[in-house]
Structure formats: structure tokens, C-alpha cells
Amino acid sequence: MNVDWQGAGDIQAIFGTLIDKELNCTVEERDRLSIPISNALIEKFARLGLYKYNLPAVWGGQEVGYAQWGRVLEKLGYLSADLSFPFLISVRMSFISFLIAVGREDINSEYLVHLIEGKTGGAFAYTEDADAFSFVSRAVPAADGKTYTVNAVKKIVTGGETANYFLLFVHGDIADMQVFLVHADDPGVVVTPSVMHGCRSTGIACLTLTDVRLDKQRLLLATDGLSFAQRYFLNCRRSLQTTLFLGRARAVIETTVAYLQNTVRYDQQLIDMQHVQACIGEMYMALESSRTLVHYSLERQVRQESDLYWDAVASMAKYQAVEDVNKIALQALNLTGGWGYTESSGIGRAHRDFTALVAGADPQEKLKVDMGIRMVHDLDMMSRRSSKKES
Fold first, then answer.
1. Considering only Cβ atoms within 10 Å of each terminal Cβ, which end of the chain, N or C, has fewer?
2. Long-range CB contacts for residues 8-15, cutoff 8 Å, separation at least 24
3. What fold does the segment set 5-121 form as a domain?
4. pTM exceeding 0.70
5. Model pLDDT for residues 97-139, shown as the tens digit of each residue
6. Facing residues of 209 across strands?
7. How far apart are CA 340 and CA 260, in angstroms?
């Protein structure tokens, strides 16, 4: 592996020992048994400053912004044979950023230091296998307004198995979305681990709350929870979360080429066959075209050119990256045959891990529908403006 790819050497110099000795050498066992990345391991990375890249300066961070943070995640995906690690790091960093954006001094002083140090971790409890306007999870206020009774089932919570805290999205006594801070050890909270197809070490879990009583201080957003989530979590993460998968796709290409260079068929190295070279070229073009779109999307967010609520470019970037990384993994399996399907090659595992993006941050088919709706709406608005000018 060429650690100079996209400057990955700078990440290797800081975190390389941990990645090699505590992530990559144990990835097969963790994946086979669905063992989640431990909080103790994340704390070691945090101690070396992993979270500080994207933290505001006031919290001791470098405040690099989404574009540079995306490049850090891409390098982590390239260097780490276990995609669950950078995936989990990206979620926990988003959790920290969300709390900072809420701006509650009492919450920040109580929780942020330990979160930044990696001693504790948070997860987003959002998905209910339904759209945001048909949530069944509810929070009912007590008559005195001092407490809430919450009932909720969140079936897919990334990082939920090892999370200490959850940002829980529910409907309140009105139709608007509310956001509560829930502790994993609150009475009535049950976390049930889930075995997934890919990214098995992220600790995906089902979160169930049954008549959980929460003090009103745990209510972070009483109204406007959905639009706040879109601005500070859902919208920006569509393109951001693809970066680590793109980094791993690059590693898959390198692994594939190395195998082909050392494999002989009909007295000829496979890598010298023109059809094989064309396949590698196709993989390379797919990777770089998606990288271009994803990083352009992140740079637009830094320049504040993106739509805060639903950005078409971020959604397109997510859609295209998912299509391309899965295409790369399948092509790698086609080229390497039986060897690529072995556990030690890592290609089959990458293929499974890449499919995690198909459903995350809106399924692929839903994104196509949304893009169509957006185009029809934009054209309709242009037509109306044109009609007004003519009249």
C-alpha cells in the first residue's frame, strides 16, 4: 500500500501503529463475530487528536471544516482494513458537532469533554423504517411540564451498541419533531445488538424506550428538530460519509492490481492482458469521478453555497459514490476470482461493507425519486417566474 496516496502518510505517521496493530490485525475476527469497535480503542485515537481536526478552536480543535475532515476520513478508510472504524468515528464526530450546534452551555459543560476525549460516545437514534413525517415514537409532557414520558423504537442505530448517549428524534404532543438526549442506562432503555450484512463492527443496534421518564433539561430541541437535523446532521453527512468508503475502494484497487501482477495465466501475467487493463482503468475512472463530485460537494458546504435543508449536489454525490464503490468491489471480485472471496484478501469484506451505503442517508432509489422531484420543482418555478415577467 502506498501511504503517500492523497497524503495518507501524515495520518499513518500519527495513527499508523494503532491502525496496524489494533485494527487491521484483528479485523477478521471482529467481522466474523460482529464484535464492535471498543470505546477503549477509540479513546486511544482520541488521545492522539483524531477528533481535533474538525472541532472548533474554542474546544481545542483545528476547525478544518467538512472538506478537510472528509479527506481525513478518506485516508482513514484507505489505511484501515476495517471500515467500521472510520464509519464510527464519523458518526461520533457528528454527534459532538450536533451538541455544539445546539449551543446549550449546561449540556456542553457536562458531556463534551468526555466525548472529545473518547471516554464516552454518542449515536443518533433517528431511523424508524419510515419517513420523518410518519414517526411513531412519541414524547408526552407531564401536566407540570417538568418531565416527559417517551416511548420509541429506533431499529437501526449506528454505534448504538457501545454508545453512552443518544440523540433521540421523536414527535412531541404537536406534529413537530423534538430531540432528546437519552442515556443508555436510563430506566426503560434497552439496547439490542443487531447483526448486519456489512460494517459489522460499528455496533449497530436497536434502541427501545418504554415509558422512559426524562427531565425537561434533556429536551435539546422542543421544535424544528427535523430542519435542525437536516442542517447539522442529515444533509452534510450524505456526501461526508462516502469519503471513507472511497478511501477503501482505492485500497481495493491496489490490492487487486498487486494480485494480478503476481498471477500468471497462459504464460502471461494477468495484469498484461488488455482486457484486464481496461477493467482496472474502469475502476480507476469510477473512483476518481466519484471523488471529484464528493469533494466538490464538501467544498461547496465550506463555502456555504449548498442548500442547508436538502442539497442536490450532496445527494448526487452520495448516490454516485455508492454506485461506483460497489461497482469497484464487484469488478475486483470478477478479476481476482476465488482468491478475492477469501477472508484474507479483504475484497469480499469490502464488498459487503460497501453495501452499507446503499441504505444509509436515504436508499438509492429514494434519492432518485427526490432528485426527480427537485428537478420538476425547479423547472416549474422557472416557468412561473418567466410567466410573471411576460405578464
1. C
2. 8/75, 8/78, 8/79, 8/247, 10/75, 11/72, 11/75, 11/76, 11/79, 12/79, 14/48, 14/49, 15/45, 15/48, 15/50, 15/76, 15/79
3. Butyryl-Coa Dehydrogenase, subunit A; domain 1 (1.10.540)
4. yes
5. 999 999 999 999 999 999 999 999 999 998 887 665 567 888 9
6. 152, 189
7. 11
